[in-house]
Amino acid sequence: MPCNVYEQDSEEAPDYTIWNVMLDASISKKHMVPDHFLIDNLWSIILKYFELRRDTSCGFHIHVSTANGGYSLDQLRMMAKAVVFWEPATKRCAPPSRHDRFLDFCKSNISHDVPVIDKLRGYGTLRGLARAYAYIDNASRNEVVSYICPDKYRAWNFLPSRTGGTGSIEFRRPPGVVTAKKAKHWIAFTMTFVEMAIQFNPSALADYIDDIPHLSSMYHPDFTEQFLTCARRLEVYAVLDPRLEQTDEPRSLHITLMTRERLKMLRTLDDDYKLSPNA
Questions:
Q1: pLDDT tens track of the chain, all 279 residues?
Q2: CB atoms within 10 A of CB 176
């Protein structure tokens, strides 16, 4: 398996016909292969030649697109609705250090500075969702993207799906991983959510939210059942971690680029969160 360590200050463009280890760079569709178990081979090479550690400043970002390279406008609208509706549930599946209070690189798609929140706050959860969905159903591709993703630092980054973009949607919520098992879990999680977004209409599942004042506080009792149904349909159920709601395992987590104020808040959840000695 040809591979290379690409230096970001190199004057030459990376060779996307081989595997590259690089800092926060885009991924070529030439890397797509039909057998996801090749991930095991990739990780065996990485672990053989590199020493890795989990750090709160690192994330595992997954880009997903359709087989023909991009989402149709209808598919994009369904993804947008699902991301808004199920945001509280998907957030709970990520470890605490990846939540908005502690990190700025994967913020919620329904946080205070996202346009869709105006409908959710102004009309209440149920009516707000109906009005948000009505907007999405009549919006253009770029309007849908801007409505729920004003910048790339969101849990679900829709910017590559704008007109002229690469066509993918990026899931940025997962933490950095150091094993093939965790990598496959988050890849399977992302694929399953996209499948669920397209197969289930969240606007038809909102009967129980009438009395919920804020969408962010909703528990979504049906999320796990529908999610696992889609995982079985995609045949990725076996690689999902049985604990959908992941923890940080703070004793082995390095914390280097976090303010002391945020660390203090994180330690209210678990005293084992500690600033790394080399921070």
A1: 577 777 767 778 878 778 777 765 444 444 455 555 588 888 998 899 888 999 999 999 999 998 887 899 999 999 999 999 899 899 999 999 999 999 999 999 999 999 999 988 887 777 788 889 999 999 999 999 999 999 999 999 999 999 999 999 999 999 999 999 999 999 999 999 999 998 876 555 555 555 555 555 565 667 888 899 999 999 999 999 999 999 999 999 999 989 999 999 999 999 999 999 876
A2: 19
Residues 212 and 4: their CA atoms lie apart, in Å, by: 51
As beta bridge partners, residue 156 has 171
DSSP 104-147: SSSB-TTSTTSTTHHHHHHH-HHHHHHHHHHHHHH--HHHHHHH
| Stated pTM of the model | 0.84
Residues whose CB falls within 8 Å of the CB of residue 202, separated by 6 or more in sequence, listed in order: 81, 82, 84, 85, 86
Contact 81, 98 (CB under 8 A): no
Beta-strand relationship, 169-171 and 62-64: antiparallel
CA gap 192, 50 in Å, rounded? 30
Residue 260, Cβ neighbours under 10 Å: how many?
Answer: 8
Task: Tell the residue number behind the tokens 């040809």, with chain if given.
Answer: 2
Instruction: Give phi and psi for 59, each to the nearest 5.
Output: -130, 165
57 touches 256 (CB < 8 A): yes
Integer Cα distance of 232 and 240 in angstroms: 10
Q: Which residues contact 174 (CB under 8 A, 6 or more apart)?
A: 59, 60, 61, 62, 94, 98, 186, 189, 190
